[in-house]
Design a protein that fits this description.
18% of the residues lie in helices and 18% in strands. The chain has five helices and five strands, in the order ααααβββββα. A five-stranded antiparallel beta sheet has the order 1-2-3-4-5, with no helix packed on it. α3 packs parallel to α4. The longest helix has 8 residues. The chain starts with 13 loop residues before the first helix and ends in a 54-residue tail after the last helix.
Length: 192
Amino acid sequence: MDIYFDRYIPEMTAADLKQILRPVLDFDAKSREEAYLETVPPKVKQAIENHHVLVGMDREMVTFAKGRPPKKVRERDGEADYEEWIYGEPPQDVEFVRFMGDEVVRLETMKVDGQKLVKTAREVDFDPAPKVAKQDDVRPTTAPSLHRPGENPDTADPVRNTVPAHVPVYVPEPPASPDPTQRPNLLSSPVR
C-alpha cells in the first residue's frame, strides 16, 4: 500500500496516520479469541480468560483456555474410549483433562504438595439449540413481488399456480455417420 502526499509529507502522529488509513484498514477488528469469547456463556468466558478448564467444556474451549496440550494420551476404560490432555510437569501443578467424545468429563489436578483434586460434576450447561424460525416467520412483510397491490398471489395467475403435468421431451436422434463409400474422394476428383 502506498500513500502519496502532495509536495511534502506533513508532520503527523500515529493517530493521524491511522485516521488516514481507516477507510482502507479496519483497526477495530476483533481478534479470533475476542470474537469467540462473545459466543460462549459468561461462566465459560471467565474461565477461558483465567485459563481454567471446566467440566462440560468442549475441545475448542479448552484450547482457548489452556492452549494446545503438550501431551495427549488415548486409552479405554471398559467399553468407553477417552483422551486425556496433560498440561504441566512436576515440580508444577499437573492437570489431566479427560475427554469423552468432544466434552470434558473429568478434570484431575495434581498439586505440587501432593494433593489430588478431581472434578467430574458438570460445571457448564449450554442452552439447547436455538429455535429455528419457520419459513413464514422469516419472510418480511414487504417481500418484493411482481403482483399488483391488493392482488392475491395464489389466485392472480391460475396458469402458473397449477402443477404442470409431465410433458414428454422430444430429443432428436443424432445424425447417422456418413457412409464412407458415399463420400467424394477429393484426391481422385478431377482438377479443373
